[in-house]
Write a structure and sequence with these properties.
This protein has 335 residues and is α/β, with parallel strands linked by helices. It is built from 15 helices and seven strands. InterPro entries: CRAL-TRIO_dom, CRAL-TRIO_dom_sf, CRAL/TRIO_N_dom_sf.
């Protein structure tokens, strides 16, 4: 591993962490989620306590992982990995390893910081509160035209995305059991800056949001797409895992009628022809929720891996260009 990465991981471990974190008991869940967890995620209520104990023992013995031991948090990884212990170990290791080498995303996660708060208030990532059925995938709205490239860069948007994701992982049982469906609204904007990414960073971001994240994707729906969008979509498909490429991926063009075949008006904000009212109310609610969880989010900065203590194979060792620079995507101009 490069000297730069070693320095970053050492810095991560220099931040003090309370040894006595508040233990959050596992929440009871509705019967419909119990059935789904049992049928689709191999969850057996009688074994969960034993499985969580095994994970905590493994993390303590790993030596290189400095992570959360809260059972509710770890249960999210069990569910994400369908209670496969080997997959849980791999995902947790990847989760903390990739975060340790993304300081531009994982540092300064204070929602009261004026700059961070300005990015939060843009409302690029907006979890929506309703689904048709209580065991449907939760809906995440991503508003491409809310991203003001003159104010911040893509890593800043990803920072807020991970802050929201950390709270969902801890608090939202429906999300962890049923997964999430993303509606990506590009808003007819000529947002060429959205595609001016450093390829090395974009590769890390794709690992963070796919291999490392316990938030399971159930589909991607693009609305208000610009001309030649298929070219851009093919680029991003190339960064997806094979599993995510097999998910539902639909480009609805500018047709709200097409979008409503998948998401009825009752679960959408007014901007997408829905009945939930303006999306700004959910942006405001999440701004306050992040502020309310400020201490939790800041504590995340102290978690990660120490490569000097690792006795196993780095799960990212085979990822090409992960720690190098590989240029940028050229800007794609759209009408």
């Amino acid at each position: 591993m490069s000297l730069k990465v070693e320095a970053l991981t050492k810095e991560v471990f220099s931040v003090p962490v309370s040894a006595e974190r508040k233990m959050i008991p596992i929440r009871p869940i509705p019967e419909c989620l119990k059935r789904k967890a049992a049928e689709e995620l191999n969850e057996k209520e009688g074994r969960v306590t034993e499985e969580l104990a095994m994970i905590k023992t493994w993390m303590q013995q790993s030596g290189h992982i400095r992570g959360r031991m809260e059972e509710q948090f770890l249960l999210g990884f069990l569910r994400s990995c369908k209670h496969s212990m080997e997959r849980v170990k791999e995902k947790l290791d990847t989760y903390y390893t990739i975060r340790s080498v993304l300081p531009e995303v994982m540092r300064n996660r204070d929602p009261l910081d004026p700059f961070v708060r300005k990015v939060i208030q843009m409302g690029v990532t907006v979890p929506l509160p309703k689904t048709v059925n209580p065991d449907d995938p939760k809906i995440i709205l991503i508003r491409g035209d809310a991203f003001n490239g003159d104010v911040c860069d893509f890593p800043d948007i990803l920072k807020v995305f991970t802050m929201i994701g950390d709270i969902l992982l801890r608090d939202d049982d429906q999300m962890m059991i049923c997964g999430q469906a993303a509606i990506i609204d590009l808003g007819h904007s000529s947002s060429s800056h959205l595609f001016n990414f450093n390829l090395s960073f974009l590769r890390k971001a794709s690992i963070l949001n796919q291999q490392a994240s316990p938030l399971r994707q159930k589909g991607f729906h693009f609305i208000n797409t610009p001309k030649s969008f298929d070219i851009v979509l093919n680029i991003f498909k190339g960064l997806m895992t094979e599993k995510n490429r097999k998910r539902t991926i639909v480009s609805h063009g500018s047709s709200l009628e097409s979008l409503h075949k998948y998401f009825p008006k009752s679960v959408l904000p007014a901007e997408l022809g829905g009945e939930l009212g303006p999306v700004q109310q959910f942006v405001d609610e999440w701004e306050q929720k992040l502020i309310d969880n400020r201490a939790y989010l800041i504590e995340e900065e102290s978690l990660g891996v120490d490569e000097n203590r690792r006795t196993t194979t780095n799960p990212l060792a085979e990822e090409k260009d992960l720690f190098g620079t590989a240029g940028t995507f050229r800007k794609l101009e759209f009408d």
